[in-house]
Write a structure and sequence with these properties.
The chain is α/β, with parallel strands linked by helices. The chain has one domain: Glycoside hydrolase/deacetylase (TIM Barrel, Alpha-Beta Barrel). The chain has eleven helices and twelve strands. Strands 1, 2, 3, 4, 5, 7, 8 and 11 form an eight-stranded parallel beta sheet that branches. It has a two-stranded parallel sheet with strand order 6-12. Strands 9-10 form a two-stranded antiparallel ribbon. α1 links the parallel β1 and β2. α1 packs parallel to α2 and α4 packs parallel to α11. The longest helix is centred in the C-terminal third of the chain and has 18 residues. It is globular and about 50 Å long.
């Protein structure tokens, strides 16, 4: 499906397009993180690294470093922030959290990085916001439950006021932008031209954004392949790629060569390479954060379901 031209977006400094990444910390040890981010920094990229602020207190559902649990990793993230990378939020810690633990994690985040999170991406905890079937509406919600055999029904409670994991009011006050639907097209703005947007049926999130599917290394190199890069430049679009740099980007202590090749090629283009929050703030300043049109929501949900069925998007 070909990207739609986004007319009338003059990117800063005469740039032709915008590109960024939100990297979830799942499976990412400190050595991998340092190797990937040294590479990105040297090329001149400035992207977003999601973190878990709070050290685990129970059995974890994912590997990966936490800020409180590894002071050396925290120092690495603080250095990245000083260099211009953004630190995002990926829920409190890699296991289900209570409201009190979530508040503690946000206070830790603020003490480490000087402010509350601008951007967030859900982790598959019980405290995830509007996750599982409630990512969707109407008939699409029912189709999703059929596709997933109901496995995610009744698992996510961040928005449910009666649940111990409820933190919707806190999210609304302390988080800027939250990620929802993920697509196979690199030009995220072409798929979701209203982002960042407010969704009246999900009032605990101030604003939502979408992303391109680079979940693991094979998906990432597919979504930023040469033809997709060329189309992004031609359309003057904006890409927010979702990924996990802890999943296959470093092997035998070396970066995967195809990843290096594609990221080096893309950096030669006249792009605006800024963190997710910076890009979304720019779009919000230009267009405002408006309620999503129901027909636009329906279109995106339908496409996401189709791509999940046939491409396995997240």
């Amino acid at each position: 499906m070909r990207a739609r031209r986004r007319a009338g977006i003059p990117w800063p400094d005469g740039k032709d397009f915008a590109f960024t990444i939100f990297d979830d910390p799942d499976g990412q040890d400190e050595a991998t993180s340092r190797r990937v981010y040294d590479f990105l920094s040297d090329l001149g990229y400035r992207t977003t690294i999601g973190v878990w602020p709070l050290a685990p207190r129970r059995a974890v559902n994912s590997g990966g470093e936490t800020c409180q649990g590894n002071p050396s990793y925290l120092s690495h993230c603080e250095r990245l922030q000083r260099e211009g990378f953004e630190i995002g939020y990926h829920c409190a810690t890699p296991h289900d959290s209570t409201r009190e633990e979530i508040i503690e994690s946000l206070n830790l985040f603020s003490s480490y990085f000087g402010h509350d999170p601008v951007t967030m991406a859900n982790h598959y905890n019980s405290d995830a916001m509007y996750w599982g079937p409630v990512r969707l509406t109407g008939i699409h919600q029912g189709i999703y439950q059929l596709l997933t055999l109901g496995k995610t029904r009744g698992r996510f409670f961040g928005h449910i006021e009666s649940h111990p994991s409820f933190w919707g009011d806190i999210c609304r006050n302390r988080i800027g932008y939250c990620r929802n639907l993920v697509f196979t097209e690199l030009n995220t703005l072409g798929v979701c031209p209203q982002m960042p947007y407010y969704d009246p049926i999900r009032p605990h999130v101030r604003a939502w954004y979408s992303s391109a599917d680079g979940n693991q290394r094979p998906a990432f190199v597919r979504v930023i392949r040469e033809s997709a890069q060329d189309e992004l430049v031609e359309c003057g679009g904006a890409a927010i790629v979702y990924t996990h740099f802890g999943h296959g980007f470093v092997e035998n202590n070396k970066l995967f060569p195809r990843f290096v090749e594609l990221m080096t090629r893309l950096r030669r283009q006249n792009g605006w390479f800024v963190p997710v929050g910076t890009l979304l703030d720019y779009l919000a300043a230009r267009n405002g954060i408006r309620p999503i049109d129901p027909s636009e929501r329906t279109r995106m949900e339908r496409r996401w379901l189709f791509e999940k069925l046939f491409h396995g998007t997240s």
